[in-house]
Specification:
Elements (H helix, E strand, L loop, with lengths): L2 H10 L21 E6 L4 H9 L6 E7 L9 H6 L5 E2 L2 H8 L5 E4 L6 H10 L3 E4 L7 H14 L3 E3 L7 H11 L6 E8 L27 H5 L25 H10 L1 H7 L7 E8 L9 E8 L8 E7 L27 H9 L2 E6 L4 E5 L6 E3 L16 H9 L9 H20 L3 E4 L4 E3 L2 H5 L19
Parallel strand pairs: 1-2, 1-4, 2-3, 4-5, 5-6, 7-10
Antiparallel strand pairs: 7-11, 8-9, 8-14, 9-10, 11-12, 12-13, 14-15
């Protein structure tokens, strides 16, 4: 694989311009509604749908699609839209509705983002794809190329990228307030709502009886074949190398989005170092992991190290006396509240260290930056958020604005996650060559840029052509 040659070859053929945030201006009248299809209508999908429902003046629902339609997790959405056409297979949905879909939400397991989005974009349909963008490095590259080739509106679902955090970070970097950063510590130390194996697996789970509601073949999609097991579904897919992108895929897009876009300028690391892992397994992601990414110098920083800490018992080192500015709604610690005190110390976030001694902190995925110490009074105002991630997507489809997390920005960010996942899977450090888009000196790791052995599954190869 040679990422740069791949992009250069398509561009030379005049297939598309590499423009971030491209959108179909003028496609819709100002008062028209976007015809929106939902792929994935339970769990995260239902959350996204409820956020879209805050803007009923901007869209109409034209289709519901879920591989496990009428299972318990879909019932609330089905009750909300009893008369909307229903599908278990996204291909059948697009075939039957043809040009009746303007935009599509893709809120399904990580491994299934890619084929649905590719099918939609080929048909000129705008796509809002949940994070991470795709399951593999190659899929991210192909999705970026397809978005540019077909000129459709795209958005990845890292909602914090449309909050005040985005506008503040952008302004602080552009004005030089954030400067000479040499180290960034990023951490997700909350307990997980998935992953129950603690490194004890010795095989894939045994086959179980398939639920009558589930289209298992379509659920598997491009992934290598596995017999059905309840341990693969219901959110547990995120823990498996063959289906999910682990904790990094779950939280990386929230915690690293602005750092990657504005400070790292979309670069990929030259090295991914595995500093520690606990509960390693050849089937599922480790329970605790510390990774270090080395980024070559650019015009904003010298060589920079980004350290990633995941796992409930794997906190980052903090300066003496450091205390988080806990967001509103989170209990403040007290002498008699150990749980609140622990959460105050370990709330998901990041710290950025500058050579002048300034330390920036940012919590979760939507809270503004703060400075440790006595610098608060020096911080300038920054532009407020314009609209939510969901409203922004709908208005972009209508040609009124550009999205803030289009695939041109989301793809390299998600490729960073896929490199981390390969390092965790193999349990060893990697060297990456950005000029070729390949992992050097490690054939096994380089092969995983395309995905697990056996992918794409027979019958799904067509989606890997732009």
């Amino acid at each position: 694989m040679n990422r740069r040659s791949f992009i250069r070859g398509i561009a030379a053929a005049g297939a598309f311009p590499l423009l971030p945030g491209c959108f179909s201006a003028g496609k819709y009248a100002a008062n028209s509604k976007v015809r929106l299809a939902f792929c994935g209508i339970g769990q995260q999908g239902w959350y996204d749908i409820q956020q879209f429902r805050l803007f009923p003046q901007l869209f109409d629902v034209v289709a519901l699609c879920d591989t496990d339609m009428e299972a318990e997790h879909t019932l609330e959405c089905l009750k909300a839209y009893p008369d909307v056409p229903r599908f278990r297979d996204f291909r059948k949905m697009f075939d039957e509705l043809g040009g009746g879909i303007d935009a599509c939400l893709v809120a399904v397991p990580d491994h299934s983002h890619f084929p649905i989005a590719m099918e939609a974009m080929r048909r000129g349909v705008a796509v809002y794809v949940e994070k991470p963008l795709a399951h593999t490095f190659e899929e991210c590259e192909l999705m970026r190329a397809a978005a540019a080739k077909y000129g459709v509106v795209t958005q990845m679902g890292n909602q914090g990228h449309s909050t005040v955090k985005y506008h503040q970070f952008k302004e602080y970097v552009e004005t030089g307030l954030i400067h000479d950063v040499y180290k960034v510590n990023v951490h997700m130390n909350n307990s997980r709502r998935w992953h129950k194996w603690e490194g004890k697996l010795t095989s894939f789970p045994k086959a179980e009886k398939l639920p009558a509601t589930l289209d298992w073949d379509t659920w598997l999609g491009t992934a290598s074949f596995h017999d059905y097991s309840r341990d693969f579904v219901g959110g547990e897919w995120r823990a498996w190398y063959d289906f999910g992108n682990g904790c990094m895929g779950d939280w990386g897009a929230h915690l690293l989005d602005c750092v990657h876009q504005f400070l790292l300028k979309g670069d990929l690391p030259s090295e991914i170092r595995v500093l520690s892992q606990n509960g390693s397994n050849k089937f599922v992601y480790p329970m605790n992991s510390t990774l270090q990414f080395v980024f070559p110098e650019n015009r904003l920083h010298d060589e920079l190290t980004l350290n990633w800490y995941e796992g409930a018992s794997n906190p980052p080192p903090l300066p003496a006396g450091f205390v988080y500015a806990v967001p509103d709604g989170i209990p403040k610690s007290s002498a008699n509240d150990e749980a609140a005190e622990r959460r105050q110390k370990l709330f998901p976030g990041k710290e950025m260290y500058q050579r002048d001694g300034m330390i920036w902190q940012s919590l979760s995925h939507k809270h503004p930056l703060h400075v440790v110490g006595d610098y608060e009074r020096k911080l300038p105002d920054y532009p407020p958020e314009f609209c939510t991630h969901y409203e922004g997507f709908l208005r972009a489809v209508r040609g009124e604005m550009e999205t803030l997390s289009p695939f041109e920005i989301a793809a390299p960010l998600s490729q960073l996650f896929t490199l981390a996942c390969i390092a965790q899977r193999l349990g060893r450090s990697l060297k990456f060559d950005a000029s070729t888009g390949g992992i050097t000196g490690d054939h096994e790791a380089n092969a995983l840029l395309k995905g697990s052995p056996g992918t794409p599954r027979k019958g799904w190869e067509e989606y890997y052509r732009v």
